[in-house]
Specification:
This protein has about 475 residues and is of the alpha/beta class. The protein contains 12 helices and 25 strands. The strands form 7 sheets. Strands 1, 2, 3, 4, 5, 6, 17, 18 and 21 form a 9-stranded mixed sheet that branches. The chain has a 5-stranded parallel sheet with strand order 7-16-8-9-12. β4 (about 105-110) and β5 (about 115-125) form a beta hairpin.
Amino acid sequence: MNTTHTDCIIIGAGLSGIGAACHLSRKNPDKTYVILEARAELGGTWSLFKYPGIRSDSDMYTFGYSFKIWEDQKSFADGPSILKYLNEAADEYQVRDHIRYQQSAVSYNFDTKEKLWTVTTVNSSTAEQTVYTCQFIFSCSGYYNYSKGYTPEFKDQSHFEGQIIHPQQWPDKLAVANKKVVVIGSGATAVTIVPELATEGAQVVMLQRSPTYIAALPNKDKIAARLKRLFPKKIAYRLIRYKNIFYSIIFFNLCKLFPEAMKNFIIKGAKKGLGDFPVDPHFIPNYNPWEQRFCIAPNGDFFRAIRKGKATVVTDHIDRFLPHGILLKSGETLAADIIITATGLNLLAFGGVKILLDSEPFDVSKSFVYKGLMLSDLPNFFIFVGYTNASWTLKSDLTSEYISRVLKYLDKHNYKAVEAKVIETDLKPVPLLNLNSGYINRAANTLPSQGNKAPWRIYQNYVLDYKMLRLDSVKDKRLRFF
């Protein structure tokens, strides 16, 4: 059995993992590291998903890294463009040589006496086991199960004679021209797929149980274009980035403070984009804005497909599948050659890896999350969890900046380990992710908790996190250095 030792092990070569590695190269060049990637290529989500139109639903000036300029004119980039951006970052900061592919982590065990992690992996193609040791683990494996998406059990599903496809397992070269396609779901994936399939000549129906908030935003930012003309690249990128951060914070807080007014504002925008297609009941959600994830339609592509009659929306419940379609509870039948189940993801905390502390199982669901990046009572273990109301990368960038400061503090004071401890006697658990979404609710009991007060509370606010992670002192009575 092979054994390899480095200072840090980064789990996952996706957006957070590549970013963490670039930050180490920039801020802590003395630290050795390896990236363990379960798949055969880097990119995470952006190499896994192949469905038509796969794109970011956050603008790339905030979804991109703080240290690498996004130079494309599009604000909302497609998957291949994002993958190209990640590969460029990996090459610019010499990250690629540190990646070990097809290394699926099985277990992590921290030895408090030696202050070392032992990581056991299995090669997904040869089944060979490898043991790695390190001082720190960066958990950048994402939050969902890569092997299978979520599909509920539909009555008589086996009776359907056409294709049933989950977007996470999209087949190569799927021909949809002149086919009747039903897309089940109303989230970001469905809103992305529907206009793309319509463009390819399919007759598309989006079938939803309940509506989602959808807003049309331009895919070219005129203010960004002006700033690029006025300032050097780096300054312009930073200005655009901060502009978009503050726009998103303002919009989110307006939704929380004035939910009814913002609901009417969003629905009015949908009505304008839909033309004669009715907003009621298809685009009037039964919850307030930002209680669930918000959907973006770049340049209004989703609304345009419906307005031009290339796609439609049906709001109803499924009774059962038929050989050539779906019977709805209302009695209506939807004919289908292909059914796309855009029904969500299966959450998987920390990649499903078995975590041990001194060879004893460690229950992450009993932990609190410190500053959004460490688990209480688990030393030298950093987690990367992005924002739910803004770009994922904004938070993962701040996480890397904070870790860099912690590593320097440890070296300066000759410590080998850091552990977060709950010292409050009245700390109450709060669900880690603050969205009332199905995929979050299904996995709530497997996730750690946040607390009801700082620094255990996760703000979902870049300005507050910037202060806490980049400006406030690393030294804290809740941290034990040893």
